[in-house]
Amino acid sequence: MNPVLYSFRRCPYAMRARMALIASGQRVELREVVLRDKPEAMIAASPKATVPVLVLPEGGVIDESLDIMRWALAGHDPEGWLSGDDAALITSNDGPFKQHLDRYKYATRYRSDPQAHRAEAVRMLMDLEVRLSRNIFLCGDRRMLSDIAIFPFVRQFAATEPDWFAGQPLTRVRAWLDGLVRSALFSRAMLRLPAWREGDTPVYL
Fold first, then answer.
1. Kind of pairing, strands 61-62 and 53-55?
2. What's the rounded Cα separation, in Å, for the pair 160 and 105?
3. Domain that holds residue 33
């Protein structure tokens, strides 16, 4: 038996989990979830009912995306991603940057000032710009865990107002982002699937 991953294609947390699983070479059954109609099997495995959820053959469950990434790479890490696991950088992304991103992109929902949160997010991206002036990727000369953990959120930010983003002084960030988006790994991770239903033929990452 193989692990089963409940995922939603556009979710940045699920996106980074899929990419790490693929990079590790771990064969995983992929089950696409529609968030408004979550399968009972996923909810039974993880009552918090948010993607991604990885159900292990022996019965364990991992329902945090970073934990899924680290679990996969602990088993097999052919590109050496774990040597670029900058916990502080990822925490900054998952905390402050994600908060500003949400309040910029979904300003009506949060009743927030989108311009103020956009400005704060750009300030944080300028820190990445400085890092990328020293290396092609965030932790060295090749992609590693920190790049893949962070880039789906930067992608989401860039896509909110693409013309505006293209004019910001973030040349290196844009080049880094573009390279990851154009990668074969990302293309494979973004496989389009219909919503999974019990009894469907398995599809594997």
1. antiparallel
2. 6
3. 4-79
| Inter-residue contact 125 to 139 (CB < 8 Å) | no
Q: Which of 79, 102, 129 is the endpoint of a domain? A: 79
CA distance 85 to 93: 13
Helix, coil or strand: residue 124: helix
Nearest CA to 68 out of 26, 20, 3, 29 is that of: 20
Count Cβ atoms within 10 A of the Cβ of residue 124 and give its class: 0-12 exposed, 13-18 middle, 19 or more buried: middle
In a domain, 203, yes or no: no
Q: Decide which of 62, 79, 96 is a domain's last residue.
A: 79
Alpha helices in the chain (DSSP H): 12-24, 40-45, 65-75, 87-92, 98-105, 107-110, 114-134, 145-160, 162-166, 171-181, 184-189
Q: What is the pLDDT of residues 54-105, one digit of tens each?
A: 999 988 999 999 999 999 999 999 999 999 999 999 999 999 999 999 999 9
Residue 203: pLDDT over 90 = yes
Q: Does residue 180 sit in the same domain as residue 113? A: yes
Structure tokens of 21?
A: 């699983």
